[in-house]
TrEMBL record:
Gene3D superfamilies: 2.40.100.20. This is Cyclophilin-like. It comes from Nocardioides alpinus. Pfam families: Cyclophil_like2. It comes from the Bacteria. Residues 5-115 form the Cyclophilin-like domain. Residues 37-59 are annotated as: Disordered.
Amino acid sequence: MRIIVTIGEQRLAATLTDSAAASDLAQMLPLTIDMTDHGGVEKTGPLPGPLSLAGQPEGADPDLGDVGYYAPGQDLVLYYGDQGYYPGIVVLGRLAEGAADRVAATAGSVTVTVEARP
């Protein structure tokens, strides 16, 4: 499934994986999430409920540009820097080429809208 992540005036394309967690996220759309910056590598914000962990490994080592889910906090995560392996991380999909740099350029807390791409 393709989605659009909007931060301010920036509309960033992304594609979700074929997984139970990504399917659960898609069913929640559209969403508006207040996200904060963590460690200069990711923006995180709370989802309205948990996503399925069926078929997921215990953790993941997300790549720059991944869209993720941090299960212990029920947070959606946009990775724009190098985050190593961590238990509870689920990779949900990928931002389009160059989008991670655009996320990195947004300083501090942001309000993000996530919606299905027509």
